[in-house]
Amino acid sequence: MSLTETPVCEFGQPAPEFSLKGVDEKEWTLTDCAGERGTLVMFICNHCPYVKAIIDRLVRDTRELRNLGAGAVAIMPNDSDNYPEDSFANMQRFAREHDFHFPYLIDQTQEVARAYGAVCTPDFFGYNADLGLQYRGRLDASKTEPAPGDARRELFEAMKQVAETGQGPADQIPSMGCSIKWR
Q1: Phi then psi for 153, rounded to 5 degrees?
Q2: Which among 118, 141, 109 has a CA at the least distance from the CA of 20?
Q3: Nearest CA among 85, 89, 84, 86 for reference residue 76
Q4: Do you know which SUPFAM superfamilies this protein is assigned to (predicted)?
């Protein structure tokens, strides 16, 4: 496990388009996943302790964001040949176990992760309705263990602000997690 932090948000940077296979066997594009008032693109995986520590909160927050018009999609960028816990079959199991209501996609070529500039899991990219980047921070204060129950919901608050105003917060704390397992 190599700890990595995300870089500072480049406000307004456009979201790269993609077409990737989901755990439901369907091909998904950015347009399919976009919300009317914002879109959250998340790079996650099954084996990372940082992802495991936040996954239930992440599912809760994306459910609530959907009610505010913000869509969400999770993309698994890791080399699953060398990290079999991140295999497609295990992605399907992980999505079922955690009741994902958003598409969970595999980036087998890692081209999408590179296009976004993703560096770790989890890595969050929050876009406004025009698909301009507004958030590149963390979910909350969790690390490899969940943060206390009363921890500030940073990603949720930021995406709520994006959905309501089109702008993300000026101050953002980088996400941290395991480095992406590049081929």
Answers
A1: -90, 75
A2: 109
A3: 86
A4: Thioredoxin-like
Here the tokens at position 100 are 């994902």
Q: Dump strand ranges (E) for 31-175.
A: 38-43, 70-76, 104-106, 120-121, 123-128, 133-135
Q: Each residue of 25-44: pLDDT tens digit?
A: 999 999 999 999 999 999 99
CA distance 152 to 140: 6
Average pLDDT score over the chain: 96
The domains found in the chain, sorted by start residue, are 3-179 (3.40.30.10)
Distance CA 120, CA 45 (A): 10
| pTM for the model | 0.97
Q: Which two tokens stand for residue 93?
A: 């199991």
